[in-house]
Write a structure and sequence with these properties.
This protein is α+β, with helices and mostly antiparallel strands. The chain contains five helices and six strands; from the N terminus they run ββββαααββαα.
Length: 138
């Protein structure tokens, strides 16, 4: 895909929803790049909500499916390319959590279970990222 204007850090903590409208915050990483950068980062955050102690994790896949369907209504998504970008962001999270950070981890401010996070990241990185997307309607 052609480079386009991207947010550069499109995560839950940089999204504000007010009156059914979505607004992005913190534009210091804004620049040009692949739209898959922002899309994959948001998908990664949605997948990582499975590990939050207070998030009903079964909703994460439904949320991911709806998010990608709506995105796909406007911009076509190449599933294999998206999976590559998601894998990279999950690997980055893995490195941050297990090799760099030694403190507690959170997803959009929600505390997570480190054991659940490790299981999720291990399964997505070591096994097969395609399993995550097999029930996603693209």
């Amino acid at each position: 895909p052609q480079p386009t204007l991207i947010h550069g850090n499109c995560t839950f903590r940089n999204v504000l929803v007010h009156n059914h409208r979505v607004h992005l915050l913190d534009y210091e990483t804004c620049g040009t790049g692949s739209r898959y950068n922002d899309l994959a980062r948001m998908c990664s955050d949605i997948l990582l909500t499975r590990t939050a102690l207070i998030f009903p994790w079964r909703r994460a896949y439904r949320l991911l499916d709806v998010f990608l369907q709506r995105y796909h209504d406007v911009y076509p998504i190449e599933k294999s390319l998206l999976m590559q970008f998601v894998s990279l962001y999950l690997f980055e999270r893995y490195v941050q959590v297990y090799l760099v950070k030694k403190s507690s981890e959170s997803i959009a401010g929600m505390p997570v279970s480190k054991a659940a996070l490790r299981r999720l990241l291990d399964s997505l990185i070591v096994e097969n990222i395609e399993d995550v997307f097999k029930n996603i309607s693209l």
